[in-house]
Automatic annotation (TrEMBL):
Primary subcellular site in the record, as a coarse category: membrane
UniProt xrefs under InterPro entries: DLP_helical, GTP-bd, Mitofusin_fam, P-loop_NTPase
Pfam families documented for this protein: DLP_helical, MMR_HSR1
Domain Dynamin-like helical: residue ranges: 400-510
Cross-referenced SUPFAM superfamilies: P-loop containing nucleoside triphosphate hydrolases (SSF52540)
An MF annotation (GO) of this entry: GTPase activity
GO cellular component: membrane
Domain G: residue ranges: 53-162
Protein name, entry field: GTPase Era
UniProt-annotated location(s): Membrane
Coiled-coil parts of chain: none
Annotated keywords: GTP-binding, Hydrolase, Membrane, Nucleotide-binding
Amino acid sequence: MKIENKLKIANLSKQLQEIVNKTYDFLKEINRNDLVESLKSDLEALKKQEVLKVAFVGQYSSGKSTIISALTGNKDIAIGANVTTDKAKGYEWNNIVLVDTPGILAGVNEKHDEATKEVLKSCDLIIYVLTSQLFDDVIFENFIDLAYNQHFKDKMLIAINKMSMETGEYEALRDNYLASIKTIFKERNYEFDYNVAFIDAQDYLDGENESEEELVQLSHFNEFISDLNNFVSDKGLIQKRFDTPIRTLQSNVSAIGLDVIDPNSADVLKQYSNRLAKSKRELSSAVTISLNDFESEIISKGYEVADCIGEIGQEEFERKLDDFNRELSNSITHKQNEIGKLADEENQIIIQEIDGLNNKDSIKLFTQQAKIQGNNVGTGKSVNTENVHKILDFLSKQSNSIAQMTFKEGANLLTKTTQAAGSQMHNIVYNAGKFFGHNFRPWEAVKTAGKIGKFAKVAGPALAFFGVGLDIYQAKKEEKQRKLIQEEKNKFCQSVRSTVKNVRKQLDQEFSSYLRDSYDVKIQEVEDQKMQIIKSEENNSKLSKHLDMLNSEYVNFIEIVNS
């Protein structure tokens, strides 16, 4: 199967494994099997944490297993192909778990059991597969249950499979099917805002197996893969799954190479690099906990508003909705302030600890050797004096740049800007951005905050219902009206979840950008410093060349996953 036709995340998984194998071969060549085992353990732990899970649900005999085969290139996959399958089954492939679920069929299996729903909760993406028959009543009810009752809407994508079974031009069929789906949703009082792929997975498999490019094109499967790639990219899953493993390889291998050439330089840079990595982990953990609390708290308050639907009048409901929107806006500002404060506090801690590194015995000895131009250290191993000076100069510059980026200085620089912005938030965001010299301009913070503020107003989908439904419900207590009210509550809850999750996404993106432009830049500078020293050693040209080749692959891969 052609590489450009595959999922990007699968390609990157394969590419990373190739780099890992090259790294292991190098370490075995220099008799460092101990590090091979250590890296295997670390990478396996990371792999378990960062597996992408994609579930296939929907209509019986819609071709879910065929789609999985087309994605993986494995035509022998046989998982959950029968409607009588009583539980979801998974297939592991290139750091991705593809989950097949029992098909939905009227009179046989009309809804997912609780065990399947629990599996779907842990999935990153749910692909709801239909045929040209589209939605019958049973399928539609199942779809709505997953989207609104189970709150999976934001991670659902619709795939209409087996398109070649219908006669007519693809574009006309696609337009007609899409119009029909929108009509079905409108008739049942639901908005339709889902991505839909129109494909034929079997045609794609046949085209690939028989090298029939025209059949591959007619299957439109590549467009489906493009939709999946866009989803993965939009969720930031590429960086989450690949950045840490590749940096783990880079740091360990460069440290080994430097240790062979100059163990004292290796020890000093390792201490500095480890402290940066530790600070990044601790700050990331604190921010994640903070954002999780924000998301949970706001969604819970939104649900409290939803509970009022059918219980109070329209005017009172509108007041509660306005109150909720104001609280959401205020919470966003508060959360940005909190993240900025967390970053600033961590900055002050790392400044103190890096200053403390200079007073450690190993660093003092290192400094003394530079001063007396000695050729031997206490361990009996030789030391390159030029390397000593390079490291001291490097650390001196880093320490100075960090020490200058205090919160107080950032506030002084921002006096006029914060007055114009009218908010302490901009002061904190700017100061956090200044950490390690990252130029996060205040007007960019204003622009970002403005976008979030505009987006963070939850529409009131329930309002239209009050005029036609509430009086009837109160007068007749009919089951139909109770169902309508519950549907409106579900839709409102989904609106709340979608809004809050999109706000969370923007806050995550802001913070990720900050990490890339501050911590990651400094960590990479340490790696570059290691490689400069390694390449300067003429007596180890073979080792230097091999390390340089590996490091180039690490750097290229880091650029890909962060682009």
